[in-house]
Write a structure and sequence with these properties.
By secondary structure, the protein is mostly beta strands. The protein has a single domain, classed as Immunoglobulin-like (Sandwich). It is 0% helix and 49% strand. It is built from no helices and seven strands. The strands form two sheets. It has a four-stranded antiparallel sheet with strand order 4-3-6-7, with no helix packed on it. Strands 1-2-5 form a three-stranded antiparallel sheet, with no helix packed on it.
Length: 103
C-alpha cells in the first residue's frame, strides 16, 4: 500500500481550495535499471475527489505525470467542517483513499 496523501482543504468565500500531494513512483515504462532491464510501467490512472460523499472532480492520468504528483483544484460550494476525500487507482489495480476536513 502506498504512503498516505497529504491533503489540505481550506474554505474562503464559499469556495474550497484543495491541495493534495500523492506519493507514488509513477514509472513510465521507458526507463532502465542499473542492469539495463526496462522498469515496468506503473502509474496512477484515475483520480476522483468527493465532498461529503458526492463526487466533485475526476480525471484520468497517463505515464507522463511526474513522481509524487501534486494536485490542486477548487470546489465552488463548501464550508468549514465538510469532508474532502481523494481516491486514486493505479495501473496495477492498487487504490488509495485519504480524506481531510475543510478548515
Amino acid at each position: 500500500m502506498a504512503d498516505p496523501m497529504r491533503i489540505r482543504a481550506q474554505e474562503k468565500d464559499g469556495k474550497v481550495l484543495v491541495r493534495a500531494l500523492m506519493r507514488h513512483e509513477m514509472e513510465s515504462g521507458q526507463r532502465k535499471d542499473s542492469s539495463g532491464q526496462v522498469i515496468p510501467a506503473w502509474w496512477i490512472q484515475d483520480v476522483t475527489a468527493s465532498l461529503n460523499g458526492k463526487e466533485v472532480f475526476s480525471c484520468e492520468w497517463g505515464p507522463a505525470i511526474s513522481k509524487n504528483p501534486f494536485l490542486q483544484f477548487t470546489i465552488k460550494e463548501g464550508k468549514k467542517g465538510d469532508t474532502v476525500s481523494i481516491t486514486w487507482t493505479d495501473s496495477k489495480g492498487d487504490t488509495r483513499t485519504d480524506e481531510a476536513t475543510v478548515s
